[in-house]
């Protein structure tokens, strides 16, 4: 789109935004288009920095009117980089940060710019949690709409299993609520494949009482990987739903090759100590960092 056309679009549309339309001429442009995967270097023609659902509606209508490709950024953590497009409009939701927790009905309503670390802190205040991202700076939006795997999924299901409703802007710029009772087909679609059905401006989640977990990292030398993985597989065959484990290869700060298991037991700590005892004794590990901690403790990455 030529500079003169961009100027015309700005003059026609900026007044409809509470937020801001950013172009390559703005000092904020490069920071606004940057996402977690530094290998992605796409350049949208416009970045709509939305601060409300009305801004999202305006951005969708702008894209339709100007026939521009659209990408949507929540947390910007998706490794494929689909949050940012070339030559289109990036609808940036990262400034939409509201979180409301109702500890009586055990529900939370959160905006699409919220990150899992922020969500966890808000719910932990009330001794509540839901299945969320394993990395604290993953956005709630992308993970939820993709189904959502997390440390609590054995006991409470995937993130989308705990989604109660969404407010969503459809491709024609209309705002709908989708839930099991209202627009149920759309609700079914966004629970796992929602990236292509509209722009979600609000998520309502079911929460569960959980103030503490027994969790941490078990580290072993890399040369023990084969026997550790075999033991881990046998160990999981009889493990309860309250236990979630993740196994992976990593290096120590000094560069030593390691294999590690992250274990999270979402139940009584005393029972978790008993359940995890065989896994913690195997080897033994070169480091056992498992301990009681606040739930669910997403981590930085």
Give the key terms:
single chain; 301 residues; alpha+beta; Uridine Diphospho-n-acetylenolpyruvylglucosamine Reductase, domain 2; Uridine Diphospho-n-acetylenolpyruvylglucosamine Reductase, domain 3; Vanillyl-alcohol Oxidase, Chain A, domain 3; five-stranded antiparallel beta sheet
Mean pLDDT: 94
E-strand count: 16
Topology as H/E string? HEHEHEEEEHEHHEEHEEEHEEHEE
Q: What gross morphology would you assign?
A: globular
* CATH level-two architecture of the largest domain: 2-Layer Sandwich
Walk me through what this model shows.
It is globular and about 70 Å long. With 301 residues, it is an alpha+beta fold. The strands form four sheets. It has a five-stranded antiparallel beta sheet with strand order 5-6-10-8-9. The two termini are 37 Å apart. The chain has helices spanning 3-13, 29-33, 53-66, 116-124, 140-145, 153-156, 184-193, 225-236, 269-281, and strands at 20-22, 46-49, 70-73, 89-92, 99-102, 107-110, 128-129, 163-169, 175-178, 199-206, 208-209, 212-221, 243-251, 257-265, 287-288, 291-294. 28% of the residues lie in helices and 27% in strands. The protein is built from nine helices and 16 strands. It has three domains: 3-92, Uridine Diphospho-n-acetylenolpyruvylglucosamine Reductase, domain 2; 99-209, Uridine Diphospho-n-acetylenolpyruvylglucosamine Reductase, domain 3 (2-Layer Sandwich), CATH 3.30.465; 212-294, 3-Layer(aba) Sandwich (Vanillyl-alcohol Oxidase, Chain A, domain 3), CATH 3.40.462.20.
